[in-house]
Amino acid sequence: MSKTDFDILVIGGGPGGYVAALRAAQLGLSVGVVEAQHLGGICLNWGCIPTKALLRASEINHLLHDLDTYGFKADAVSFDFTKIVGRSRAVSKQLASGVAHLLKKAKVPVFNGYGKLDGIGPEGKRKVKLSQKDSAETTLTARHVILATGARARVLPGLEPDGKFVWSYREALVPDELPKRLLVIGSGAIGTEFASFYRNMGSDVTLVEVAPRVLPVEDEEISALAQKSFEKQGMKVFTSAKLGPLSKNATDVTVTVEAGGKTHNITVDRVISAVGIVGNVENLGLENTKITVDRTHIVTDALCRTGEAGVYAIGDVAGAPWLAHKASHEAVMCVEAIAGKTVHPIDATKIPGCTYCRPQVASVGYTEARAKEAGYKVRVGKFPLIANGKALAMGETEGLVKTVFDAQTGELLGAHMIGAEVTEMIQGYVIARSGELTEAELTETIFPHPTISESMHEAVLAAYSGALHF
Amino acid sequence: MATEVLMPALSPTMTEGAVARWLKKEGDTISAGDVLAEIETDKATMEVEAVEEGILGRILVQEGTQGVSVNTPIAILVEEGEAVPESASTAAPVKKEPEAAASEPKAASQPLAAATPPKNRVFASPLAKRVASQKNIDLTTVKGSGPNGRIVRKDVDAAAQKGAPVKGQETPEAPLSSGGHKIVPHSTMRKVIAKRLAESKSTVPHFYVSVDVELDALLALRSQLNATSPAEGPDTFKLSVNDMLVKAAAVALKRIPSVNASFTDDAMIMYDDVDISVAVSIPDGLITPIVKQADKKSLKQISQETKDLVKRARAGKLKPEEFQGGTFSISNMGMYGVKDFSAIINPPQAAILAIAAGRKLPVVKGSEIAIATVMTVTLSVDHRVVDGSTAAEWLSAFRSIVESPLSLVI
């Protein structure tokens, strides 16, 4: 008989849940994980990781079509689309089995099934009803239950995934063949990444956004540069757009898009709906508890505690930003708080966001506009990658680094980057922001030459003494 | 085996102190009983003695460091030939390093500018430091909430909010004189004086009553008494005017005991003993050693005791119980020739007597003009404890004791 009573029971094995379990095990707590589908959650299986594998392929395809720039010549470049998708799946599988191995090594039992809060049992312990396929329901008990059930794609009426014309991210990750014409609805991180992938693989892509700009959460200047770059790559981009109903034909789909005072009739082979996500709050037994749900997300305090003592919620199900690294960080914080350690609540303005479209976008903290709204008097520094030696050498001159400082205190309020490898570099600014460095320390930091990261230094200088190379 | 020297608790209420001075250097051989360092609390300086013998391996808290919590390791004592642990946390036996490590030239890789280790190291983020300097907040008073207690910006903001002047009372920061200036950090004592006196003056309703007292009879008695002192030997004494006024105040307090009291929200505390705090100026401040049960002591006892207290006060060697407590205070500025002044009450006491200089003045006696030595004394009184008539009664009693001083010797 396997163990059924724990200090902590985690429902959901994604980047929130499995990290919570690993940290709990490190701290010597007994912990179990309930996972309905696959360890690693959306991130490893249907999100962050497989998309990066696909985007790597599309980046290679882009370079193969730009060989002449570097002095190469190759005839009849082609690809096997099934193999590209297969590689993406293999990467996910490898990582997910890695998570299973880590949990096994930490002696954390994983229950394959659905967990549901089921009241309080003896000694005030939380009961969790476990429903497993092909077996009777059983009850697990724990002093603390962490809900880490994640989120799923929001489905708008008329845009329900139909397995044929309309895709959510799931179908978009495992296409049988490359659609010739593709409509992507929504230009957040998910939408732009798919738009980038398919465009760089050769599809005709139309990107539609209801907000006035693509990547609406990013700094306006960054959004503008992204749109310009997408259009240069041959994407059609409509912002402030109004979408008419889809009319599905035998082999394709027609839709009207109103934008810029004009109505466009667009016919495509496939439609990707990337219009946000909703939290997985159903069938968790929240009904008879003090836990409150606000717009599909569980309401928690700064330490991830719900309205019900002993029940916590972390990651996507607990609200924005919907990022794996936020989930993992909350996981560690939540478990450490349970273990009685001193923890520090997360400041959302210190969580970086990365989008892996081409060119990449990465940011942390306040945009220039939001800093001004918040009442800061700002100093802004900008440095274009065209002036950076390494970017030029790599043939990746498209991009900009922008810093936003509080003019009064020198606090780095935010940093916004677009261009090659910026997702790998943003952590520099995140460290600065988390460690509360000011312009003085950043100015005195020696950045290595030649790197694209020198632009990060220059963007700081630009806000104060002036950039040296622009 | 390395042992830690901990910040001692010099009084039951002490929670932190400052390391005023190290009397031994790293590498010095220590015998049990050697004075290692001087610790400054809010008013006294005390010595830390070595309990064990050994070698002072490492000084962990540099002199001048303030706000060191009681029981914090301040130094590490090692045995001869023992490796010195880096810090208190690794004070457990350390792996013996090959000798080469010890003889390695230490400063070789250190630029000169970095040779002096920073004192009072405060762990704070650069942003917290900058905001603190902009808001003029002393970071040593801020509790850090960041990793390992590091002070972060929100701690400074919180401290600023807590200590900020009440809204509406905010005054624009007075500009500093455009000439040169230097910043002198507050000593612990200066901070305590500032805090206690500001609190007293702003929360205790003071009122002041003055009276002129003729001193001639008291001066004559003093000469007579001093003439009886043996020329030499341990029994010699020399009474000062102040000694006699301390005794006079004590006798007056016995006669009007309602002045020998303290106000609390719920009740009045009436003291049985008359313990007189005598304000003594010392470099960088003042301290009030206490002549306990002054009403019961002879002038000679008061004199000898006061001399000893003042001497030790100036050397910073008073024990806390020798300056904390007291039921009434005397501040005497007669030696500076002042005409009159009023003093701030030393809470929780109810009154303080300010004594000015005795001056020869023409006075009317009967219908004649005569010359008398007159001093003006001013009683500052907490009106919550003592009303005007009682204050006047007390002063009148004090005057009659001074002017007919025989009661000082009975």
TrEMBL record, chain A:
Cofactor binding, per record: Binds 1 FAD per subunit.
What biological processes does GO assign it?
2-oxoglutarate metabolic process
Q: Which reaction does it catalyse?
A: N(6)-[(R)-dihydrolipoyl]-L-lysyl-[protein] + NAD(+) = N(6)-[(R)-lipoyl]-L-lysyl-[protein] + NADH + H(+)
The cofactors it requires, by name, are:
FAD
**Protein's recorded name:** Dihydrolipoyl dehydrogenase
Protein family membership: Belongs to the class-I pyridine nucleotide-disulfide oxidoreductase family.
Q: Pyridine nucleotide-disulphide oxidoreductase dimerisation domain: which residues?
A: 351-459
Q: What is the lineage of its organism?
A: Bacteria, Pseudomonadati, Pseudomonadota, Alphaproteobacteria, Acetobacterales
Where does the chain cross the membrane?
A: none
TrEMBL record, chain B:
Classification via SUPFAM superfamilies: CoA-dependent acyltransferases (SSF52777), Peripheral subunit-binding domain of 2-oxo acid dehydrogenase complex (SSF47005), Single hybrid motif (SSF51230)
Q: What class of enzyme is it?
A: transferase
Q: What is the lineage of its organism?
A: Bacteria, Pseudomonadati, Pseudomonadota, Alphaproteobacteria, Acetobacterales
| A Pfam family of this chain | 2-oxoacid_dh
GO MF, any single term: dihydrolipoyllysine-residue acetyltransferase activity
Q: Where is the composition biased (Low complexity)?
A: 100-109
Q: Entry cofactor note text?
A: Binds 1 lipoyl cofactor covalently.
Subunit and partners: Forms a 24-polypeptide structural core with octahedral symmetry.
Source organism per UniProt: Acetobacter cibinongensis
| Gene Ontology CC annotations of this record | pyruvate dehydrogenase complex
Q: Which family does it belong to?
A: Belongs to the 2-oxoacid dehydrogenase family.
* Residue span of region Disordered: 83-119, 163-183
Q: Which UniProt keywords apply?
A: Acyltransferase, Lipoyl, Pyruvate, Transferase
Task: Give the EC number(s) under which this enzyme is classified.
Answer: 2.3.1.12
- This protein is called what? Acetyltransferase component of pyruvate dehydrogenase complex
